[in-house]
Amino acid sequence: MSQMRGVFIGQRRDRMGARLLMMLTCIRLAEDFGTDYRVNWFPQGADAPELDKPEELFSQAWMDRHFLTDPEFEELAKTAAPIWSFQNDKTPDRLNAHLASGKAVIVEEGFEVLAFPWEDLDEIRPRYRAFIDRIGFTPTLRAIMDRVNDRLSGQGVSAYHIRRGDILNGLPWKHTTWPAKIEPEEYYERHLEKMAGKPAIMFSDQPELLRRFQARYPQLLQMSDIVDLSQMTRAQRDFLELYAMSRADQIIAPIISAFSMAAARISGRQRLVFRDVLTEQEIREANDRVVERVREGPKAFLNPSEAAHIYSKAAQYLNAEGRSEDAHALAQPILEAGADNAFLPLLQALNGFYLGNWGEAEKFARQGLENPHLWPEDHAALCALFAAILGARRKRWAAGRWFLRAFWAKPMRPDVIVFGSRLLYRGQLAERLCPPVDWDLQKQLRQRRFTPFSNLHLVQWKVIARQPCNFDMVLLDWHELALDQKARRLLESGDRLVRLREGLERVEEIDPEHPSCRSLSALLGFRQGEISAARAIDECRNVIAMRPEKALYHKRLADLLEADGDVAAARYAHGDALALSPDNPFLTYVSGCFLQRNGAQDQGEAQILRAADLDDGTAAIQGAAGQILLRRGEKQKARPYLERARQLCPTFRRFSNQLARIDRAR
Questions:
Q1: Pick the CATH number of 139-276 from 3.40.50.11350, 3.30.390.50, 3.30.70.3290, 3.30.160.620
Q2: C-alpha to C-alpha distance for 543 and 536, rounded to whole angstroms
């Protein structure tokens, strides 16, 4: 295929909504940049089997015109550039030059309306509503689209999306809470009452809910009231419902819902959440109704799983209102009804924590930790909660071990940070279990409170009165111990480094000239590109002259010297740190990693294996030792290290997968 001017190529590997928006974005870009667009409908790794027959949606003539064959895509992709590589440009010049040379641009953006810095997003967004008519849908679909458009467009219709489906009943989705995806029915009811007499349509992946709402609100439409889709394929039904939602005058949905988000983008409007359409008083009234329905027991819900999910919303509301006894009491009937959602013991342990019922809180925490379906984020949160329970019972050593399990698994999880801050502020964290850290500074280096109910199980003010610590100070030195990949990438995260710097500048109780502040400031200055490596190294050496007994400062010097390319000097600095604390597993481990990175593979492996024998509480160290022995073919020697790593973090699949390979090889 020849093309004088480069084209935009759209591709997505996920489902209907994202793929449609990708195509609309390509149509918009092609129009504004004077070229054409193509669609790579079958990219490698696509995860949407219901879309494997595009002829169910598009006419053959349109696909012949716009779809790429695999050879055509491979040829264009050789010189193509991703659209994001132009998104920080101040002018369109470089993008126009790229297209003018005949090279393609690959577009994978799937949920946001794309705009460059030189463009006006508010002018672009409304245009998307018309772009859908430029896609060559089959005559059958087009006829239904016309019928839907006539029925809904310009009629002042409110479209509601209720997300349930696999979240309630599917594995593994039922086993964690979805605060941004599930909104209680009472929110929808409150808005329907507010909009009484006005047209409305509701979409849901739970048919029972649609029937329940229509029984109470006869004027409420669902898709079957407009057209019978029972003979359509899943892809056709998904598209037509999404299109119908996009024709409404306002779309009201949970905070995170790919389906409704895509419909809103296609509509050219912004999707609304309940805080946009209900007042605080109306939301409070709706929450009170939620509590009353939960009080009726599981019989008021579709099944015990739905009762558990809605209970999780009610429990946060009640605990935020200081009504923890109510939250505690309302959970018991759901547990007795057989709800097996893995998050329920976590929530009941949290209720016990708020009430100071330490024995019961510990019982539910242990019960929750034994559940193999617990999600990684929930496992980390429960480990941190368990640590706080043990800390309250004056079991500092055990509290420290459980907190470190949580921290090294998910050090950026808000629940982990808040509980860790409590342990630190109250002196309930056994510091000898941790790597070298300036703990006095860590207690003073804080971050903003987390947004309430956003990615949090707990209610912050019931755990700590002060702002939480910024534990990125720990990760700045010890990110290699974290299992979470995003946490490990701290050095590449400018925003997180900026927040660390801001936190350091707000510290008032420690003199800026104190060695702890000077050392951290030098390290941050280099990592942020504000000072040279040479200047940071000089400052680190000045700090070491003041506090030569602090192994942490020698370790930081080693990091800076390695970053500056002076490997020999960095090796000496690691040696100085180890000389001060020769049996410290964390210093031993990072020294081994350094040696591996810099050509001393055998010595590095020996150091890592020694670190694993010195410490049995850090999954990354145990796992690294097991991997070394696996590479050597010493499978049975690797097993105890990998089993310990899995025990410390059972939700981290790598360890389980490696153990499974050992078993298969027997």
A1: 3.40.50.11350
A2: 11
